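Ligand-bound model needed. zinc ion.
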Amino acid sequence: MSGIVSNFELTILGCNSAIQAFGRHPTSQVFSAYNQLYLIDCGEGTQFQLDKFHIKKSRINQIFISHLHGDHYYGLMGLLSSYRLHGRTEPLQVFCPIGTKEIVEVNLKHSKGQFVYPIEFYEIEDKPSHKIFEDKYIEVHTIPLNHKIATTGFLFVEKPRERNFIKEKIEEHQIPNEAINLIKEGNDFIGLDGKVIPYTELTTAPHPQRKYAYCSDTIYDESILPIIQGVDLLYHEATYLHSEELKAQQYWHSTAKQAATIAMKANAQSLMIGHYSSRYDNLDELLNEAKSVFSNSMLAIEGRTTEVSPTAP
Ligand SMILES: [Zn+2]
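Prediction:
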């Protein structure tokens, strides 16, 4: 979209549920904003998928783990270990469920190993949605999900952007270069003749903040709606077709129809479904079922990058 210079996009590394099947891997994604990379979940094989899709793992400084079912984190130990072997020195932050640090430490204890780079574990407390991370570009908030064990989704929110300066105004009002950033930040300009020109006359409103919500794994639960309201892209698990609704409930998962209903009720711009059961080879039925409720639905496909934008398909 015009006016957007910085990327905000999602690449799927693994899109299947518990068992890998039909060439599909367990869950992992790379979210990229302003060319920073954030890893979301780390199922087995994640580092191989990173290599396959030419994503430099050394550029990842934050990892977000939703829950401690193996298909969402069994790749973590391997990735952490590879970082050591590759001589990583940069600190790594891991946002994860309670118990993750202990699991990693038990591994290290019995292999008599250690990491030479600093790892900070931030274990997520089970409480209402709250901010767990921010940098210059984004904030990350938790999305408490309803699964068999403690599970958290993640909401990635772009920080407010500065206003766009209207270049033609420089000559018109004799505005010096050093004043431009101040005006973009919302300060009025005072000309040499003392005349005040409001910043709103010199700039246009910034692009709305972009938002990506990652929701996996969960049963159908409308309590997340206020948190994910109006997101540009919602990823919601859709392990089963709705004909398997009882099975979905039994295993604390959702159907494609349920994922689409959440997207519709959340007024999401678009929906991506994933975490497919290994019973499905062809995914068209899952997609069609989601589309019958929410037309702007798409499948999570490994290796595919999707732009998170208010006008994305
Ligand atoms: Zn799970």
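Residues 47 and 82 are 9 Å apart (CA to CA).
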